[in-house]
Hints:
532 residues; alpha+beta; Phosphorylase Kinase, domain 1; 3 domains; 5-stranded antiparallel β-sheet; 4-stranded antiparallel β-sheet; protein serine/threonine kinase activity; Prot_kinase_dom; serine/threonine-protein kinase; EC 2.7.11.1; transferase
Amino acid sequence: xxxxxxxxxxxxxxxxxxxxxxxxxxxxxxxxxxxxxxxxxxxxxxxxxxxxxxxxxxxxxxxxxxxxxxxxxxxxxxxxxxxxxxxxxxxxxxxxxxxxxxxxxxxxxxxxxxxxxxxxxxxxxxxxxxxxxxxxxxxxxxxxxxxxxxxxxxxxxxxxxxxxxxxxxxxxxxxxxxxxxxxxxxxxxxxxxxxxxxxxxxxxxxxxxxxxxxxxxxxxxxxxxxxxxxxxxxxxxxxxxxxxxxxxxxxxxxxxxxxxxxxxxxxxxxxxxxxxxxxxxxxxxxxxxxxxxxxxxxxxxxxxxxxxxxxxxxxxxxxxxxxxxxxxxxxxxxxxxxxxxxxxxxxxxxxxxxxxxxxxxxxxxxxxxxxxxxxxxxxxxxxxxxxxxxxxxxxxxxxxxxxxxxxxxxxxxxxxxxxxxxxxxxxxxxxxxxxxxxxxxxxxxxxxxxxxxxxxxxxxxxxxxxxxxxxxxxxxxxxxxxxxxxxxxxxxxxxxxxxxxxxxxxxxxxxxxxxxxxxxxxxxxxxxxxxx
Length: 532
């Protein structure tokens, strides 16, 4: 922390009545500064100084005087403010030097200072601060020609007491401050116009023999004319800022937007500004390089992400292909399974159909068995009935002559069919020898029927194969089927197989056989009764 003893006073500088100003040197570095000493004992003075210090710190920039530090004096009665030292002094010295320049250079430099002061004032106004004491003595100039605004001790709301204590600065105040005792940002603009007028011409625009006369001219707006060599644009800007009606004055933003002011700001580059621009350019280059590095890093990261995404995509595609192949295989297996199921269903349907057919055949067979059983029972009853034929009938049959109309005696077999068709009965004469032969045949038939009766309960197929050779005795009328078992001559000998055909004559109905007729079945009309 700096102390009063750290600085050596070189000389005292002109200052105001409220403070004393010295050019000092820091003993350690031999760097020169401005030391401003203000009263700091009374509360009113203390509050006023604290406001100025706070403003200088908050408004610190390239356009304002830099406050280095503060500390009390040896007695503790005053506050020492160490400020930036501007080598070329304040604007009053610059105005005197300015008059030695050629008119064209004065005009060009006039635009430069107009732009610099307006930019510095805009910095204050953008922070809602009015300088309120803008004059050449409060505008400091550096070695490179850049300016700094200083002395913010009065940068607060004015009152009547303040108005009475600013002797020596009234000639830079706007008309409304003198007439209406009112000050605002446009009042700073008016003061700027007066300063630029004085810079270009070397004299005050309201120049008079006394300060009172100057104030009177200000109130009446009796401003001097600018020289003819001053450009119309410069005249317009100065008159614009010094308009008696504060509502018609421009703002700092409006002045800075003027084409010539903008051009002057671009052209003017002090060594400090150039150095700052170099620093700014270097910082910008570093920033851009950092941004480029970050961008490159981001691009590399994105590229890696893209590669990883591509690998992941390829992996997903491979998995999808594998899934598709598995799905296709599963579909093939499913189709194969469906085909197998269809085959199984078809086989099941076929089996069901076969089962149904077999069941139908079983039922048919069962019906046939039932029918055959009934037929066998009927035959048994018939045999029993025949066994009970009266002996007189048998005797009658024996006595009946056998006419033997044919050379062959036909032996007939009654089939198991329940339908017996009767044929017309023919009476044949029999000789005594034939009768004996027939009796022997009948006895043989009875024995065979008896044997078959014993086997009646056997297998139906076997039963169907069995036959009973007999002569027709007593049957109801209808059709009768006969089967030729053998052909015999009337002498009892079998007919040989060389016989190609035979004739069967029964009850007047004649049928021709194929070949020898053995094993064939034929139907005849049967009229009922006894026929042989």
